[in-house]
């Protein structure tokens, strides 16, 4: 991200703060009792700068203390041999924990699972969401009702949704899916298969439940995108004889690009961190353990704080790589937004 | 505006695809449109089906709920809800529900209290590096919470905050603060600077400007932000699972325990799931548009 973009309105007193003025909080005291030599005007300007910053500080400090300090602690713990089951055996271990994490095939499997799970769920729910949004973009009787029905999955508490899929839908004996299969079999006179969905396709089961929950989210974002489309352009193209597919391919899709990116980005942020669905549906078994689940287990079951922390640090490094890319996308998105306003 | 004679130009300004068919085969068009409407209904119904089925099952008896093929027309009963809300099973759902309300409402209020001034300092009277600050807020959202879980747990254990709902309030506040700052910033930017300047030139003091000029424009945005923060806090389970026990347990954690301790009772499970999702369902249905604004961090208006 380049920081050279101009700020919309100049800050209170640009002349008073030379570039590179340090801005730790401790300075506010210094600003208050500025050297006598400083001319009153500069002093007032400085006070004004701090008055501008002051509203930002509580949120900033709170966030740093609650979200950043724990990461520093994680980093430190990851360098220690520390298992809660052997409290006396605690010592500096250098990078041993990292060796263990990288050498652990379960953890490497979790990395693969996390990537597969995230990519599949994001892509499938984006595609389904796009289809739903296109259908809902047209005017038809009961459109509001259909939209309300379609967003319902997103409004079920995630744990409840996972339980619903596991017990009410997927259950091999009395789940809805097999029940419907059996009924179809009855009607057409054949023995319907009764698969055990979760053990036959564990990752597919987790993905299906997550896709169901996230498609409405994608649909809402894309629908907003469709409705912000300049209609004159579409109409002009239609008059020029363009067919629906051409209009979709050359006008709608380019316009939707930033909305698709936004949906993919926000979806990834949440699905990478998903814990509820994996924990509820498969308890991480059958190759479905993703990183949040594995770290949770490492720390609640194995109680190996050192290894859990090392895994946490690696996850953070992976996330930073993803985040740098993601932030670039967001920043370009919002810059466009800004230039439009 | 009073022109009554339809001109060709009037047709062009009508939204595409919604304008009456002007040429070609009108019957084919309307047939196609009806087909797409049916398809939209079918797709919406398909996504709604699991929710509808869960709602129906929650009103069935346990025997009917577990029948295969599914009993669509079985008699309805409130037994599932009675078991869930009653204390006969030894599980009282009210303390967890009250804990969830406390955690969600208090953290949402705290988020607004912290985020509103911050958003003000990033939009109306922006600090110099406002863009960097904004992205710093967002970047904290990209770090997986699970990586910070252990230190938080150790800190809570050593300071006696384990199983304390106020610890969750603080954590949920930090979890939602970045989103809230982004959203509120995007709404405050909408307040035209000229209006504020004009009010100040007229001699209005800051509280007056905030109350009379800024608040009316921003209030819908504040409502959207509050809704999103409420939903995310209400849904959260990982922190709640690790950091609470008997006293501060929240509704989602209670739900998982309810299932494992009760064996497999589909009607009860459905009733419990519906009951616990109800606040979110109600809030979300009531404010569908706000949901988009909130979830897209204000990028989609």
TrEMBL record, chain A:
Residue span, ABC transmembrane type-1 domain: 111-326
Keywords noted in UniProt: Cell membrane, Membrane, Transmembrane, Transmembrane helix, Transport
Subcellular location as annotated: Cell membrane
Pro residues compositional bias, start-end: 8-22
Topology of the protein relative to the lipid bilayer: Multi-pass membrane protein
Location of region: Disordered: 1-29
GO cellular component assignments: plasma membrane
Name of this chain's protein: Sugar ABC transporter permease
Source organism of the structure: Streptomyces hoynatensis
Automatic annotation (TrEMBL), chain B:
Stretches the record annotates as Disordered: 1-26
Localization, UniProt: Cell membrane
Gene Ontology biological process terms from the UniProt entry: transmembrane transport
Ranges of Low complexity composition bias in the record: 8-26
Superkingdom of source: Bacteria
The UniProt record lists the keyword Transcription regulation: no
Keywords: Cell membrane, Membrane, Transmembrane, Transmembrane helix, Transport
Main location as per UniProt: membrane
PROSITE patterns: ABC_TM1
Gene3D superfamilies recorded: MetI-like
Domain ABC transmembrane type-1: 97-287
Coiled coil: none
Family per similarity comment: Belongs to the binding-protein-dependent transport system permease family.
Protein name as annotated: Carbohydrate ABC transporter permease
Organism: Streptomyces hoynatensis
